[in-house]
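Quick one: C-alpha cells for this chain, please?
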Amino acid sequence: LAQASRRCAFPTPGDVQSRYHPPEMCPAADQKRGGNAGETAAKQVAQKTAVAEKPSALASQKEAASQKGPVAILQEFVQCVRHPVAVQHRAILQWSYEQRMLGDAALEFRATVAFLLDCVPHHSVGTWRTSKKLAQRDAAERALHFFIGKWGEMLLREDMDGDGQPASLRQTTESDAEVLHRFCLDSESTGRRAPQWSYAWSGGECTARAQITMFGAPHHFGGAALPSQEAARIDTARRVLWYLQCPGYEDLYAPDPRAPTLSGKEISAPPANWACSGEEVEELRRAERKVVVMRVQNRLQQQLAAVLKPGQGVWEWGYEAHE
C-alpha cells in the first residue's frame, strides 16, 4: 500500500472482526524490535495522508486505487514490511474459510487471512458472506480499515502531540499482568476496558489467552505453555505489552528466525474456533453435518442417475423410538 490516498478507495466497514496473534518471538536482551507490528508501514502510509498533494496527482492516485481490489492492496501493504527471513514461494496472504448453513440448502462463507507484519503472525477474520470471493474481499477490507485507518490515525496523533519519551510502566511492585490491566484501563485504543482471560490445559501445561478490544476489534493474544496458570498469564501479558509497545517493554522480544512461522511456507493456524462464540461453534458443526449429507446425496444421484425414476429420492429413511 504505497499511496495513502488509497484509503478513500475502499469501504469503511461498520465493525472490524477479530484477530489472533500467536506467540512467535523469543526474549531479546539487546535486539530492538523496531515498533508495533506493522507500525513502520502503517506510519509511512499515515504520514503521507498528512501531506498536501496536487489535485492532479491525487486524482491519478485515486483512479489507480479504484482499479485494484482490497485483496491486492492488502498484499501490497504487507509486502511493505521487510522480514529478516525470506522464504521462497511463500504466499504473502494465506487464506482459509469456514462455512455454515443459511436456511436449509444455501451456504455462507467466512474468510480468515493470515500474514506477517513485523515478523508477527496475524490472523484476521471477516464476516459471513454468500460466496468465498465476497468473504475474501470482506476480510481484506476490514484488515485494511483497521491497520491503515485505525492504527494510522493513532500514529498521526502521537506524532502531532510530540509529548516526548513516556515514562516506563515496567515496575517491580506490579506483575506484568497487573501492568497490562492498568495499561488497558488508561488507553483510549482499548476503549479503557480490561483484558479478558481464558486458559487451556494440555499435558500438564497451561496456555493463557488474552482478549483485548482495540479500536472496536476483539484481539486474541496467545502465550507459551507453562506449568502454572499464573506463569502463563504473566507470559502472555508480557507479550501483549511488547506488541503494543508499552513504555518499558519495547525491547523485550525479538523475532526468532527458527520459528516455524518465519522459516516455513505456512503460517501456523490459530486455535480451532478462536473467533467463534459458543452458538457459532454449534452452527458450524450443524453445517458440517449437513454438508456431508448433501455431498453424499449428490454423489449418489450421479452414480444412480440411470436407475432412479423421475422425482425419486436417493434416501429412504426409517426411524425407531427408544424410551
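The chain has eight helices and nine strands.
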